[in-house]
Amino acid sequence: MACSLIILLAFFASMATQGESRAFFVFGDSLVDNGNNNYLITTARADSLPYGIDYPTHRPTGRFSNGLNIPDLISEHLGMEPTEPYLSPLLRGKKLLVGANFASAGVGILNDTGIQFLNIIRIGQQLDYFKEYQTLVAGLIGSEQTQALVYKALVLITLGGNDFVNNYYLVPFSARSTQFSLPDYVTYLISEYRKVLRKLYDLGARRVLVTGTGPMGCVPAELAQRSRAGECAVELMRANELYNPQLTQMLRGLNTELGANVFVAANTYSMHMDFITNPQAYGFVTSKTACCGQGPYNGIGLCTPLSNLCPNRDLYAFWDPFHPSEKANRIVVQQILTGDNKYMNPMNLTTILAMDSRT
């Protein structure tokens, strides 16, 4: 038994030091949640069909997608299995060394974002879980190896959209819209996000992809509620225009302060607008109507077994009222990998991986 334990620990240690076993950590909301909310009492769930209809198992996994989401596709490029949700009982032993997904549908930068979803993992708790994760791994491979694993890891964080859609603009005269004008709210969000990212750095993150907000006013849910003729909702697009440049500026300032390009801005707004404004160029028949839903643009309510469902998900830019299809996610990830400075600042993921392979 003792001999088996020694062999197992040696295996863990070797995995932690191999270049190809770079860990991947994910934080954020439903765009990147791999199923943590399945283990919570919450209304923000994607654990029933037709979610997962195009996933390899053709079963719902808790991903807000017909198939793979952005973290899955990044893992695919890295030659790794998708990271397990942190709350999954499957995340044990050597699987911990691959990384973990801490994201939870419904969360935002602010603690009061998503309160209507009840029990979700707010970003502060996600960071606490990251600290807990490191303690678990240290028990397997030791503190020094754990620190090295975290330092060398790739990190993805996606926040911000819910702070607008499910907070500021959730209802007319919301508490936050009464408290702040939109420009002041954006300034407040950026200052709070900076604290989150600084804490992530303090916990050991050294390569962090930070996505901006996508074109919130163009998603089918907002078209159904706010659009008269299919045009993107003006106020939400104004929020994008204010928030995303300030986010990039804040990341640049953080990098200057830290003396390294720790944080990389992914301009997911531009990535999405490419196929929203010209869907046919990317093989979509529409970027307005969701594949799964009901009402105008299939944008009302949730995607359920009773919803309208398109037969070919690859023809739709949006899977449900809020979330891109797997095909759209693939377009976004390709830009994360190879996009120029319009999309990735100061560098794309391929450049990051090439640089890090030399160190």
Structural commentary:
- Helix content is 42%, strand content 8%.
- The radius of gyration is 20 Å and the shape is globular.
- It has 359 residues and is α/β, with parallel strands linked by helices.
- The strands form two sheets. Strands 2-1-3-4-5-8 form a six-stranded mixed β-sheet. Strands 6-7 form a two-stranded antiparallel sheet.
List keywords for this structure.
12 helices, 8% strand, Rossmann fold, lipid metabolism, GDSL_Est/Lipase, signal, hydrolase activity, alpha/beta, two-stranded antiparallel ribbon, 359 residues
Describe the structure concisely for a colleague.
Residues 1-21 form the signal peptide. The protein is of the alpha/beta class.
Question: What's the structural blueprint in terms of helices and strands?
Answer:
Layout: H1 2-17, E1 24-28, H2 70-78, E2 99-101, H3 123-141, H4 143-152, E3 154-158, H5 161-168, H6 175-179, H7 182-202, E4 208-211, H8 220-226, H9 234-258, E5 263-266, H10 268-277, E6 292-293, E7 308-309, H11 326-338, E8 344-345, H12 349-357
